[in-house]
Amino acid sequence: MSESSSPSLLPSKTEIAEQLDSRDELAKVRARFVLDFGVTYLDGNSLGALPASVPGRLDDVVRREWGELRIRSWDESGWWTAPERIGDRIAPLVGAAAGQIVVGDSTSVNVFKALVGAVRLAGGGEGNGKGSGRDEILVDATTFPTDGYIAESAARVTGCTLRALEPGAVPGELSDRTAAVLLNHVDYRTGRLHDLPALTAAIHASGALAVWDLCHSAGALPVGLDEHGVDLAVGCTYKYLNGGPGSPAYLYVNHAHQERFDSPLPGWTSHADPFGMRPEYAPAPGATRGRVGTPDILSMLALEAALEVWEGVGIDAVRAKSLALTDFFLECVDEYVPEGRVESVTPVAHAERGSQVALRCEDAGEVMRRLIERGVVGDFRRPDVLRFGFTPLYVGFADVERAARVLGEVVAG
Amino acid sequence: MSESSSPSLLPSKTEIAEQLDSRDELAKVRARFVLDFGVTYLDGNSLGALPASVPGRLDDVVRREWGELRIRSWDESGWWTAPERIGDRIAPLVGAAAGQIVVGDSTSVNVFKALVGAVRLAGGGEGNGKGSGRDEILVDATTFPTDGYIAESAARVTGCTLRALEPGAVPGELSDRTAAVLLNHVDYRTGRLHDLPALTAAIHASGALAVWDLCHSAGALPVGLDEHGVDLAVGCTYKYLNGGPGSPAYLYVNHAHQERFDSPLPGWTSHADPFGMRPEYAPAPGATRGRVGTPDILSMLALEAALEVWEGVGIDAVRAKSLALTDFFLECVDEYVPEGRVESVTPVAHAERGSQVALRCEDAGEVMRRLIERGVVGDFRRPDVLRFGFTPLYVGFADVERAARVLGEVVAG
């Protein structure tokens, strides 16, 4: 502002925040969450805030459905069908038609199902007798580590080799040996959004299958699984979907593949006739084939209640607000934080940005500790990254301004 | 009673029940559960009743730990260490020293970890380069179906063959080709208890590893995992451990095997340094190596609260009461049910009996429907089995007498 002869004519960041908040159509959704005053919560990309609909619903599940109805609830309270029902509730948020998503297990377990399933669908690996010659899995080298570890196991049990690559390098490395590619939609560390449509198309052009991890994109931006012909996908529900700590993950199997999807975890609840208790396995049709064991009802129904916050909320509006929030945060950081003190590693281009901003900062661990003390909650990723997640359903522009201002104060002294 | 000239001198079953209840040391434990009057709940072997400690604790987890502390709870509320902590709480109930049990995932997923892990520990299967020649898995042919389905998958991914056998036939079929054997401790259908010490010893004598499924025994009778040198074991927590619908299962890996245990699901939370976010996998020591993804906290902490009912309760006392309950039930059925109408398929010998009684009955589905209408809740297993589970912590002898009496009335017409 030093160049202006009349600084008071320019609106301050506080004033801009006020204006942006007053025009925010999603501002009303914040009341659907339990949020305390004095805390600016920018860690919804790690653990989403508590939706106000959850505590009462879960109490009813425990006291009445479990405590009074007990086993009758498997039918009468809809417990048995919860994995598919909740999957269908998530479906529109990731651009999937109904009947392709099933909720249950952790993300890691679903990565295993999806990747082994993809190799088998490609006729790849050893011992499938299909001779496709597709014996290689490619995995995102920048992925959240669990995907890489599980991919290594998937390669081992299917007789494939595994290569880790930067997502941008994938198109150049695809070949007729590639069986499947596992990619993250948004880099958990930098917040970089990868080009799902183009990468999926390139993978398909090589004859391989595309498996996407949506942990850091689902609920924050449009994914378009059906539109872009994604083969299989997984995601967690405790970040932008606010399902609670360690809430069940989900598996998407495109309709086109469901009939041939061959899960490496064929538990009894994925059987065509689970109560027939037959010794021979016969897979259920549809999304149900992605199930494994008995559904974890308490966590699953907490998630279902949490998804009520999406009532009347479109993912495009969420994306627009998310970009406005991260843009504004970068502007405020620019204004409040002494130059050279932090450096954004999150792409500037909207097409390459998820819903978080990651700032490299020399003493990031200590800085985050002090931010949290002052009520600005992000998280620290070793060795030197301050990570701030922006959940458009409950983060406002005043939060953003305050976070950047406090960050400026903390790093200044 | 027709042979007695003075029937009134013999105590009635009602009187006997009253006496047995008055002498029952565990009778006081019933108050730790939410149970309604007028219902005799004999389905705790499917879904345990609600412990009174659960609703309040879970509400606190949701409102305070998640809603207020949010991500801080991973440390401050002990979320991160819950899988091992709760495993150690289950350990004494199954005769395991601390540090060998980790809670998480479903039983089916844990069967996969345990069985693939066992084959690898035996140096078996293909592609391990150890040349042990052990390329066969044996599985209990009478098992709950999921174990058989998952065993088939475990065989496929390790390059083994699979053979299903009656547990009694296992010792005669073991050979130097056997890598691992998966057995159920109690048959879910008949309630037959298998001889874990003898079968484990026979399996070991052949050089193979023993994997036991404890779903229908843990919490109902002593298991003695350490004493009998069981290699790996799994179990659910929603039956006799009362953890709630679909609550997380557990995996036991004997101390002797932990260092070489090689999980097919090496997720990030089983890493030696999970927050190092390293691209290379390095397994954690101890029970933690059996983890996979982010722990499912709501269900897990509900389970932890549920385990409080075991305070001051020894598993030997539970076993003694369990046998007294099933003995008394069989006597009452004998007295109240018209001859030939039902036939017990549960062994008479205590050493062969779990904590349930299964009665074959021609129109079992309809009979169970009418029993439930009259407040006697067991379950029906196709095609013709009435299954009654006896949870010594909350089932009393008067319940038993009433259940048999109502059964007699229902089948009489």
TrEMBL record, chains A, B:
Residues reported to bind pyridoxal 5'-phosphate: T107, S108, F144, P145, T146, D147, D213, H216, Y238, W268, T294
Q: Which reaction does it catalyse?
A: 3-hydroxy-L-kynurenine + H2O = 3-hydroxyanthranilate + L-alanine + H(+); L-kynurenine + H2O = anthranilate + L-alanine + H(+)
Q: Which Pfam families match?
A: KYNU_C
Tell me the Gene Ontology biological-process terms attached to this UniProt entry.
anthranilate metabolic process; L-kynurenine catabolic process; L-tryptophan catabolic process to kynurenine; NAD+ biosynthetic process; quinolinate biosynthetic process
Instruction: Name a single GO cellular component.
Output: cytoplasm
**Gene3D superfamilies found in the cross-reference section:** Aspartate Aminotransferase, domain 1, Type I PLP-dependent aspartate aminotransferase-like (Major domain)
EC number(s) given by UniProt: 3.7.1.3
> Any idea which GO molecular function terms this record carries?
kynureninase activity; pyridoxal phosphate binding
Q: Which InterPro entries match?
A: Kynureninase (IPR010111), PyrdxlP-dep_Trfase (IPR015424), PyrdxlP-dep_Trfase_major (IPR015421), PyrdxlP-dep_Trfase_small (IPR015422)
Q: In which pathway does it act?
A: Amino-acid degradation; L-kynurenine degradation; L-alanine and anthranilate from L-kynurenine: step 1/1; Cofactor biosynthesis; NAD(+) biosynthesis; quinolinate from L-kynurenine: step 2/3
Any idea which UniProt keywords this protein has? Hydrolase, Pyridine nucleotide biosynthesis, Pyridoxal phosphate
- In-chain residues carrying the UniProt-annotated modification N6-(pyridoxal phosphate)lysine: K239
The superkingdom of the source organism is Bacteria
The cofactors it requires, by name, are: pyridoxal 5'-phosphate
Q: Which NCBIfam families match?
A: kynureninase
Q: Spell out the subunit comment.
A: Homodimer.
HAMAP family, per this entry?
Kynureninase
The free-text function statement in the UniProt record for this protein reads: Catalyzes the cleavage of L-kynurenine (L-Kyn) and L-3-hydroxykynurenine (L-3OHKyn) into anthranilic acid (AA) and 3-hydroxyanthranilic acid (3-OHAA), respectively.
Similarity remark = Belongs to the kynureninase family.
- What's the name of the protein? Kynureninase
Q: What is the lineage of its organism?
A: Bacteria, Bacillati, Actinomycetota, Actinomycetes, Kitasatosporales
